[in-house]
């Protein structure tokens, strides 16, 4: 089942196993069961530490990953290939006794969780956000015997997905109740369980020389450049990596022919940690005030002080802001075609937006769904011509321009979309099961009052990255930079850090 190159790489990882592992398999006579058996037997043939036993589990096909005398609570329902193959490999290593790469404080938080927690995560193998959730829940299962986790491939258990009306992945249930949707890090899951740090955890922090607000490419670059000057540097990040964590393929990062967002973010985080930067993850800033020092107040009430601040808060998906969008989010309204597209197999969907991201989404979805309707507000599509040519060659795509979306309709989930023709002023309704919103980004700057912003909400900066507030700099997609690209954000982060350092030595 596994290609030769993958087996060669896998063999190196399996040699790192520290103890024996038993794969208990619940299989039937169906195709998925046969393929799952082929996979686990192939794994067993590659390592003397892996054995396979037949068993009866809650779901068939599925298999659990256990120590010979102990059930860890880790179960894979379906075949963990694609993006989830790494989750399987890590589970094998961690169950065998190899310590997960988690800091000591987080391990202690997990081990101190009391009560019974049974997590179920519904995923698709093409989802690049899902492995973070699967791997985090697996780690929790390994470290705490009160916690179990089952990964469920939605394609293998379609009836279950339909019954629970799951229309976005990853979707997590805890003890049978809805827990969360979308990418969640281990720290975010712990915070949702109520074990995250409160304001008191920040009360004894001394003022920083440079405090970076935002942990995307711009923020990581700024922090590294600042720390290399030998000055006290901190990062506040709502989610380290920012938008890049939701980016699939990256082919224009110079010097790297191809990478994926989560992989790049892991490299950024590793680089940041090399410099001893104080990273405060899962924290959101709500106020900036310039006094003798610049003060940043967090949503948990803590106040951090710094001689200079670099704002790199990035941007978020722009909402279409029509009735039904918020109500049906994750119930037919989606923003990531790579993650959620497979859940709409054989169904009818709409893509709102005719720029590059919208047309790329439509092309991607056309290979999965029954039909795609593209709605563009302007008289013409704005995507590159090569993308438009590809789109128009597809038989199951309808393009409607001059269309103003007015409502996303539904009852318990999406059943259609309404729009008005800007040319004729006539109202139209299209029956469908999913809507993908792809209309660009909006900067995360709503909380800034004293910092000058333009009509788009972007922070206005000079060529040094400086804002109108002395000691406050900005970089990346939250600024009025001409182009929003990863490599440009990194460059602007470096510029802002050098600008902040120059400000400090002159003041």
CATH architecture of the largest domain: 3-Layer(aba) Sandwich
| Strand tally | 27
Radius of gyration: 24 Å
Determine the CATH topology of the largest domain: Glutaredoxin
Looking at the structure, what is the overall shape?
A: globular
What do you see in this structure?
By secondary structure, the protein is of the alpha/beta class. It has 3 domains: 4-192, Glutaredoxin (3-Layer(aba) Sandwich), CATH 3.40.30; 205-316 and 442-506, FAD/NAD(P)-binding domain, CATH 3.50.50.60; 333-437, 3-Layer(bba) Sandwich (FAD/NAD(P)-binding domain), CATH 3.50.50.60. It has 13 helices and 27 strands. The longest helix has 21 residues, at 486-506. The chain is globular.
What keyword list fits this structure?
FAD/NAD(P)-binding domain, 3 domains, 13 helices, 27 strands, 28% helix, globular
Task: Detail the topology: elements first, then pairings.
Elements lengths: L3 H11 L6 E6 L4 H16 L3 E5 L7 E6 L2 E8 L7 H11 L8 H8 L5 E7 L6 H14 L3 E7 L4 H6 L7 E4 L2 E5 L4 H7 L15 E6 L3 H11 L5 E5 L11 E2 L8 E2 H13 L4 E4 L3 E6 L3 E5 L4 E9 L3 E3 L15 E2 L2 H4 L7 E5 L3 H11 L4 E5 L9 H8 L4 E4 L2 E8 L3 E8 L5 E5 L2 E4 L3 E3 L28 E3 L11 H21 L1
Parallel strand pairs: 1-2, 4-6, 5-6, 9-10, 9-16, 10-13, 16-27, 18-25, 19-20, 19-25, 20-21
Antiparallel strand pairs: 1-3, 3-4, 5-7, 7-8, 11-12, 14-15, 15-16, 17-26, 22-23, 23-24
């Amino acid at each position: 089942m596994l290609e030769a190159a993958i087996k060669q790489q896998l063999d190196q990882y399996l040699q790192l196993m520290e103890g024996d592992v038993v794969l208990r398999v619940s299989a039937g006579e169906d195709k998925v069961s046969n393929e799952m058996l082929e996979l686990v037997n192939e794994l067993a043939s590659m390592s003397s530490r892996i054995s396979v036993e037949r068993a009866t589990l809650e779901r068939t096909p599925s298999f659990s990953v256990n120590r010979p005398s102990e059930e860890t609570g880790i179960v894979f329902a379906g075949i963990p290939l694609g993006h989830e193959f790494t989750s399987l490999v890590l589970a094998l290593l961690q169950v065998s006794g190899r310590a997960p790469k988690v800091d000591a404080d987080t391990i202690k938080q997990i081990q101190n969780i009391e009560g019974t927690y049974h997590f179920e995560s519904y995923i698709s193998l093409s989802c690049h956000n899902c492995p973070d959730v699967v791997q985090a829940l697996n780690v929790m299962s390994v470290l705490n015997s009160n916690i179990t986790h089952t990964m469920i491939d939605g394609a293998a258990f379609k009836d279950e997905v339909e019954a629970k009306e799951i229309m976005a992945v990853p979707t997590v249930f805890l003890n049978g109740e809805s827990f969360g949707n979308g990418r969640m890090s281990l720290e975010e899951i712990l915070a949702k369980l109520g074990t995250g740090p409160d304001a008191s955890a920040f009360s004894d922090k001394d003022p920083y020389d440079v405090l970076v607000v935002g942990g995307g490419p711009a923020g990581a670059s700024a922090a590294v450049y600042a720390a290399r000057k030998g000055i006290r540097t901190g990062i506040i990040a709502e989610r380290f990596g920012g938008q890049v964590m939701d980016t699939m393929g990256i082919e224009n990062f110079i010097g790297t022919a191809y990478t994926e967002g989560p992989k790049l973010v892991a490299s950024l985080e590793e680089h940041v940690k090399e410099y001893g930067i104080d990273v405060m993850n899962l924290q959101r800033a709500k106020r900036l005030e310039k006094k003798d020092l610049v003060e940043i107040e967090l949503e948990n009430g803590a106040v951090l002080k710094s001689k200079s601040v670099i704002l790199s808060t990035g941007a978020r998906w722009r909402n279409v802001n029509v009735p039904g969008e918020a109500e049906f989010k994750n119930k037919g309204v989606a923003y990531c075609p790579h993650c959620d597209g497979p859940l709409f197999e054989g169904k009818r969907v709409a893509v709102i937006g005719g720029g590059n991201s919208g047309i790329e989404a439509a092309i991607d979805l056309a290979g999965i769904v029954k039909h795609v309707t593209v709605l563009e507000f302007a008289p013409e599509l704005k995507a590159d011509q090569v993308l438009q040519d590809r789109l128009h060659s597809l038989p199951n795509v309808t393009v409607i321009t001059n269309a103003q979306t007015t409502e996303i309709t539904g009852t318990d989930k999406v059943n259609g979309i309404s729009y008005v023709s800007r040319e004729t002023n006539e109202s139209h309704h299209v029956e469908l099961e999913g809507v993908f919103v792809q209309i660009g980004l909006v900067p995360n700057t709503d909380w800034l009052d004293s910092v000058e912003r333009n009509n788009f909400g972007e922070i206005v900066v000079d060529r040094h990255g400086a804002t109108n507030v002395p000691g406050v700099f900005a970089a990346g997609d939250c600024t009025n930079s001409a182009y929003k690209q990863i490599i440009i954000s990194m460059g602007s982060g470096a510029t802002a850090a050098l600008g902040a350092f120059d400000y400090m030595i002159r003041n």
